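User: I'm writing a short report section on ligand binding and want a predicted complex to refer to. Could you take this sequence and biotin and write out the structure as tokens? A short remark afterwards would be nice.
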Amino acid sequence: MTKQKLLNLLEHRKGEILSGPELSQELNVSRNSIWKAINALRKEDHDIISVKNKGYYLKEDSDGLSKSDILRHLGSLADQYHIIILDEIPSTNTYLKDQEDLPHNTLVLTKVQTSGRGRRGRSFYSLDEGGIYMSLLKSKDLEKYDLDLATMASALALSQVTDKVLKVESKVKWVNDLFINQKKAAGILTEGTMELESGTLSRLIIGMGINVNTKSFPEELIPIATSFFLETKRMHQRNEIIAKLLIELENYLLMTKENPSELLKQYKAKMLYLGEEVHVHRGKEHFAGILRDLDEKGHLLIKTADELLVLSSGEISIKKREDL
Ligand code: BTN
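Assistant: Sure. The structure tokens for the complex follow:
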């Protein structure tokens, strides 16, 4: 408990030196307890600096994942979310799928995923501790959303937050990838659980993997992957980004029902390859066509040499060049 209270205090007064006696008086615990809590927080990647004969402070760019910091950034919306932070699990999406009794709006985060999953059975690189690997569970009032558009809404929320935080113009590659300067910086995997009797979706899981403070990638990913750090040459605050994402996610999910045409308009404005030739992969088959448009359900309209195809996200992926 002391550890959490101390972190709250240091976060509120980030960058300010607080003396040992001041901390122990403020939290009403011994100096020894403060010292132990500081060591425990350092082990959790919080960058706490000791200044000889003066005290301690949390560095401005300290970027440890912290529940209290995320809640602080959520402000008045904080009581709507349940946040779980773990050290290492196979996949945050799988974690939520496997635990059936977790409440609506549970957000699970992990420092590392050992089997991060992407669309169409692909893996997602999740070993760098500077990334955000998170999944949000929605299990109440799903009728407020058009679930066909949920992945697009999530991609748009992610892209808008990225643009605001990084001051860049990110793009979305249909349907779920975030690109900055032609390289992938994040991916989204939305999954659902069906209610057998009614045939309706009872749980929606929105998983996001974002390369935030990742400084390098394995050799094979270097030509195609990037991170917020590599694009801006500075560290970013993951807790703040996560809170902003939760807020925008809800806004854009509501837009799927309340104003889908505006959602599609905004999505198209950010979409890569619109009007260009793309290569479509459908199972083992692949073919070229012009990416003409999106229909009102967010399906792709692809004009091949012979016909106009309407393609949904479950079955295909698109690439700009055959070799990517
Ligand atoms: C893709 O690239 O096709 C989507 C990648 C989605 C990765 C995120 S990381 C958090 C969540 N857990 C997973 O296993 N996958 C998603």
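A remark for your report: The pocket of biotin is lined by residues 91-93, 113, 116-119, 122, 124, 126, 133-135, 176, 187-189, 207-209 (CB under 6 Å). The two ends are 50 Å apart (CA to CA).
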